[in-house]
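From the pipeline queue, job 12 of 40. The input is one protein chain; the requested action is below.

Action: predict structure.
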Amino acid sequence: MASYRAPEHVPPEMVKDSSLFTSPGTERTPNGDSHAAVACVHDRRQIFYSPCNTRDGRGTWVIARAHDQRRLLQDTETFSSHRSLFASALGEDWPLIPLELDPPAHGVFRSLLNPLLSPKRVTELEPAIRNRVIAVISKISASSTSCDVLKDYAFPFAVSIFLRLFGIPVVLPAVPTSRAAVHIHAEAARGFALR
């Protein structure tokens, strides 16, 4: 594991090597195995600083227990969510909205998304979501007896559901399979979505 320095204000006893990308057992997938990394975290101190837990080497505090995570996420005066960690995986530096925004900007974007993700709206979408699951699995089973779950199922399924949420038509089998393809698909459907 690469060795990075922790900031001077972090006590040495609070520094532990841990990485979602390079900890033992995480090498099974190209971007690491988050489940294996989390299992390693639960065997350690409940709160610690990992200088090598991000792709860019900036390091992060690791909060292993749900009650501590909840407390930190709700204390926006002390803690910030603005790090652009997800975008850095794509080589970008923008924040993932609303997840990586702090108040008050977080609330503005969240208020726009809430109606799309309300329990009532999701319940209304359930039949279409079930049909989409069946369509994706049927396509996989028609062509093979095995698949790459992320590439062949998870990504096409998730993208198609979000396209549907935003009123962009899902054209089978040509569901976008990359960020660039999603952008192109959205641009092509812009006139349809505005009708």
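Job complete. The chain has three domains: 1-79, 81-117, 119-194.
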